[in-house]
Each structure stands twice: as C-alpha cells, then as structure tokens.
Amino acid sequence: MATNLKKLGSILTKQASLVRRLSSSPSLASDGANGKSINLYTAINQALQIALDSDPRSYVFGEDVGFGGVFRCTTGLADQFGKHRVFNTPLCEQGIVGFGIGLAAMGNRAIAEIQFADYIFPAFDQIVNEAAKFRYRSGNEFNCGGLTVRAPYGAVGHGGHYHSQSPEAFFCHVPGIKVVIPRSPKEAKGLLLASIRDPNPVVFFEPKWLYRLAVEEVPEGDYTLPLSQAEVIREGSDITLVGWGAQLAVMEQACIDAEKEGISCELIDLRTLIPWDKETVEASVRKTGRLLISHEAPVTGGFGAEISASIVERCFLRLEAPVARVCGLDTPFPLVFEPFYMPTKNKILDAIKDTVNF
Length: 358
Known about the structure:
Pfam families: Transket_pyr, Transketolase_C. Its EC number is 1.2.4.4. Its main location: mitochondrion. One of its GO terms (cellular component) is mitochondrial matrix. The protein is an alpha/beta fold. The protein has two domains: 35-219, Thiamin diphosphate (ThDP)-binding fold, Pyr/PP domains (Rossmann fold), CATH 3.40.50; 228-356, Rossmann fold, CATH 3.40.50. The protein contains 14 helices and 14 strands. The chain has helices spanning 2-22, 40-54, 77-81, 93-105, 124-131, 134-137, 168-172, 185-197, 210-213, 247-260, 278-288, 303-315, 338-341, 345-356; strands spanning 35-39, 58-62, 86-88, 109-113, 147-153, 178-180, 202-207, 215-219, 231-234, 239-243, 265-269, 272-274, 291-298, 324-328. The strands form three sheets. A seven-stranded mixed beta sheet has the order 3-2-4-5-7-6-12, with helices on both faces. It has a five-stranded mixed beta sheet with strand order 9-11-10-13-14, with helices on both faces.
C-alpha cells in the first residue's frame, strides 16, 4: 500500500510540473504585450481591483474575503476600498447569492465569492430559480444582470470529494445565466472583467489548481475578452479537441505527443460554456471530421454530452468516427485515487489514436 501511495504521489507531482511547463506554452498563452508575468490568483485580484476602482457601485463579498480569502484572490482589496465595499459574509451560500441578487437588482455590480464550487449547491435555488429568471419573470422591467458569482472549481491534488468537484454542467441547463471558465491568468483577468460588466448574471468558475501554478504575461491595465467566443489555440487537420479551464494544459500535452506520432490535432478552448460557441467548434469538426471532448466532471450528464449531441446534429455526414469523451469517472471524487479518476494525458492520447484510427 505504501508503495502504491508513493506512485500516486509521483503522478501528482508530474501533473503539477506539466501545468507549470504548459502555462508558458506559446499556443496556450495569449499575447502579453505591455504585460507583467503573474499567476492566476494575482490576475483575478487585479481584475477585482479594476472592477472596484472603475465602478463605485461594485462590491465584493463572501466568506473570508475581507482578509484575502482562502486562495488570497481578494488580498488587499478591503484595505484599499474599505470594508463597506469588500466584506465578509456569514457562512451561508444561499444568503450570499440572495444578497447579491438584491444588490444587483438595485443597479449595483455584485461580485459574490463562493469559497469552493463544491459548496455552491446551497445557493443553487437562488441562482437557477431567482437570478436566472429575474429578468424574464418581470417582462424585462427588472434584472439582476450585475451579479457575478465566483467559485474555485476542480481538482487540486489533495481536495477529496468535498473540495474538488466540477459542477458546471448543473448550471449549463438553466437559461438566463452565463457560465464562464478561464484557462490561464490573462484569460482569467479579461473574462472576469467581461463577466462583471455583462448585463446578465454570470457564474465564473476558477480552476483552483492553476491559482499558483499557471503563470504568463498579463496586461497590467483594464481589458476584457469576449464572452461566448471560443478560441482555437492550436491548429490541426486530423481531429478536433474541445475543453475548458485546467484541462486545456493536459490536452495540449496530449496534442504534442500525438503530433510526434503523425497526428495533427486542433485544440479549442470553449471559454464560455453557456451560451457556447457552436460555430467555431462546428467549423473545426467539418475540417477534421473527428471530435474529442475532455473535462474533469463525471462523464454522465457532463457538458461534453451537450457538445457531442449538437455537433452530431450539425456535422453527422462529415464525421468519420464517433465523438469521443475523456472525462472524470461516475464516482464521488476520490482522494488518494485522484490520478485514476482524472482525464489524464495518456487517456486523451489513447482516445485520439482510437478516434483517428477508427
């Protein structure tokens, strides 16, 4: 048993090293002109600072955000903007989001933090039955479009089943909200600012594994990146790969290894899951004839299923193989067996080969 645990620890160490290397990959990193090399949590902090500074109606609140939060994303903001604009809340996720809805309904920019995405479920009713329907049920007379709900999601190497989940698919089923997931520091800053300023409520999932591991050049000023616009971050001709968040780094390594075996992979970062960019994915699949989707969430009912169904409808006569999905397992998220649960580089590479050779 001790030997097996040592092997698992070695696998986790290699995965962390992989993320560090790939965070500076030219194809994963965007142009960082006039930027500074920072990690992802610092990029989030910069975005929040800009949001608070540029709009006096902006407020940041959640459990422990007053002293910087568990992941330090709000460090220094209470000192700079005051405790009336950056403040702690009770340990009550339903109350946090409910308060945010009311604040946004009065014309403010409410930026609510859920400490871990695993604990967003007590606020599920507020998000899907109140925030998502607020504009619709009032006939567009009222809205809470100024609400952004931030939540760290996904694997972290030691989180177990209460601190590692990827619940994005639950929210993608609900019209009226947007779901956004960045893959890198520059993407995180630009997409978060765009989410805060979007006229619709947004659930913004942050890949906690990358908070300190992902580092790239990020513009120091104010900028936004378009929502609902996917990005082709690697051109290819044999197969299309689609993912989001931390999984992009793993998929990139699989693409590199596949290239060594003569397989050309096109890699797409979806960035926004709802509403997602069907046109970019469709155009790529029409070119390659094959599609593979990978995400950390369990395979059954994961958002990869929606992408698969949509592309089959749009590209059925062009597909040369069944759509492949490499995802988390249909089990509670494990602790010491996390490396077996995760959609790893080797799992993706095997699926690439199987799909291309179908």
